[in-house]
Amino acid sequence: MDLLATSLLGLLLTWLLLQAFLSIKNGNKSSQRKLPPGPRRIPIFGNLFDLGDKPHRSLAKFARIHGPVMSLKLGSLITVVVSSETTAKEILQKQDLIFCNRTIVDAVRASQHYEFGLPWLPVSPLWRTLRKVSNTHIFSSLKLDSNEYLRRHKIQQLIAKVGESRLKGEAVNIGQAAFDTTINLLSNTMFSVDLVDPNSARAEEFRKTVYSIMVEAGTPNLADYFPLLRKMDPQGVRHRITVHFDKLLKLFGNMIDERQQSRKSQDYTASNDVLDLLDIIEGDIEELNKNLITHLFLMTGSVCCWNGYNIKYIRVGDGRNTLKSTCFT
């Protein structure tokens, strides 16, 4: 045990010395690159500790000192922060092709999602194809309008469930109820099925899987600030999220296979959902295949699930006697 501890300590010290050397070396290079001004940095960690537990307030304070465009060093990564409305419009509207690519966090490297997921792809023919498919067949105004009856039906189910709890004198978990409604609305739009059934053990596992993905994706990860650590995955974030991603990708893949088998039947009735449309256009778009479709569902589901779980704190009073935000979960 002593030998193991000594070896680990030696590796840690070696890594710290290497990081310090790279920090000094990169710092000299940065000073030659005309970076915007920014707060003073400490070796290895840069400005990580300057952000504190309220990064938005820390950045606002730095902007008052260093101006609307400043540079920070987060670990070994140089980050340029823009807080000016005029400059932000210039970047996001006029220079969007240059700045539209996103930083790929280590968590989305799980299951190679960053190679197929629309938000993480660089501007390319594949990105344009997936964006066109999303805008035309998933998020288009026509598609959303055609599902108005479905949204109304799910909201009525939610109201009925709350009414039943009121009659029984039971507390209502608002966050959970909103999450379940969001998932079922999404799954009906995509697959014409309810993926969350309060009485189903499979649904409970699905709910836990989605929630675990959100927790892991939101966990601060050292590998995002020190790329040298990516292969080691020191916190195990990528390993755990790979397990959860694979579960959902397998679920979506099975549903696609079942639909394709059903479509071969003579008595098959079209569902007119997203999966039906994607199956139809798959033969017309060379880049579109089962793997891309499952990752497209994974991306869409994760965004909607995150929004469902965000309904947790409700402000009471509507501007009159506004009370402190109350947790209903």
From TrEMBL:
Residues making up the signal peptide according to the UniProt record: 1-20
Entry keyword Signal: yes
GO molecular function, one term: monooxygenase activity
Keywords per UniProt: Signal
Keyword Lyase among UniProt keywords: no
Matches recorded under InterPro entries: Cyt_P450, Cyt_P450_sf
Listed name of the protein: Cytochrome P450
Source species: Gossypium barbadense (Sea Island cotton)
